[in-house]
Design goal:
2 strands; Arc Repressor Mutant, subunit A; 5 helices; mainly alpha; two-stranded antiparallel ribbon; single chain
Length: about 110
């Protein structure tokens, strides 16, 4: 399980990517995060991020009928959201590279001792 502090800064970008792949709603986002190995991410964690993304005009919502109850809000990326997702991917690549280099370096120095 990934500690919540590590997830905190990454969830926004991950949610943008999920929405980018397919128009979706909050509960489904939580389910997809779980299926991708993020553990149990509650809707209570997802909703504030979605509200922030809407406030920042990175996603837009459309109300649609649901087969099981009230209407659902389905989310789509806006052009600003596409830009934010691109920035997230670039930043993730840089962070991933740096952490992997650090861990690789630690492993190599352990072999030399």
């Amino acid at each position: 399980m990934i500690p919540s502090q590590m997830l905190k800064g990454m969830l926004e970008g991950c949610i943008l990517e999920i929405i980018n792949k397919q128009e979706t709603y909050a509960y489904e986002i939580s389910e997809k995060l779980s299926k991708f190995g993020f553990g149990e991410i509650s809707e209570g964690t997802v909703y504030p991020i979605i509200l922030r993304l809407q406030k920042n005009e990175q996603i837009s919502a459309t109300l649609r009928d649901s087969n099981s109850g009230p209407k659902r809000k389905y989310y789509n990326l806006t052009p600003s959201g596409m830009k934010a997702l691109s920035q997230f991917k670039n930043q993730w690549q840089e962070l991933n590279f740096a952490v992997n280099n650090l861990l690789k370096g630690e492993n190599e120095s352990e072999k030399e001792v």
